[in-house]
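Input chain follows. Return structure tokens only.
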Amino acid sequence: MLNRTLAVVATVVTLLAGAAPAALAAGATTGSADFRTAVRAPAEARVTAAVLDLDGTGREPVVYGDDTPYDTASIVKVDILASLLLHARDHRRALTARESALAQVMIRDSDNDAANALWHSIGGAPGLASANKRLGLTSTTPGTGGRWGLTRTTAGDQIRLLSAVFGVGPTPLDTASRSRIGTLMTEIAADQSWGVSAAADSGWALKNGWLMRTTTDLWDINSVGRVTAGGHHYLVAVLSNGNASMPAGVHLVERAARTAVTATAAH
């Protein structure tokens, strides 16, 4: 059922992708109103993007919109894997064959059973919080009661996490761990390859998240990763909620990713 749903989404997004996003107007700020206008966000939806040019001189991301918390949905699976790898290194061991297999399907196929198992392995919410402190995340609150998908995070914090994987210089993750996460993020199932990849003109690595909130019937749609565009490598995080449907949210996230990367490249 999930694959059929995602296949429909992929078809709809392909049909809609021909419309180029509006550029941020000359003199516009990165504030919420300007960005919402540029990406044609529906009135009920909220969206924030953050971009870091790895080939630029700055070390802080440019944030478009309000950098306030959103539900992670399945993008937290990157964080779970990073936490697992830190935990294993602390105990001077490699991942077990089972852990490796679970990590692969958790990232590649967004398998929730695998995420449940590895969430337990890292010690749940306290384990994620401990790892995030080491990774430099300051605005991420783990979900409680085993509800890892309701972890709350900001676009800026997601760039900090991506920097620990793809950034330059030393990070709490060792080289092998960074390579493992980065490689898995290039092997995403074809029907889940939407999102920040829309801003790439060549390579990308990503993880997406999608969740319909039963209290509102509206969708959280998120995408984080690294893209290559115009010869530069960018870390990109786009978070959104209040989407009327999954296809509408995917389309909004892709418009936001293209707009944010284009604006960052122009400056």
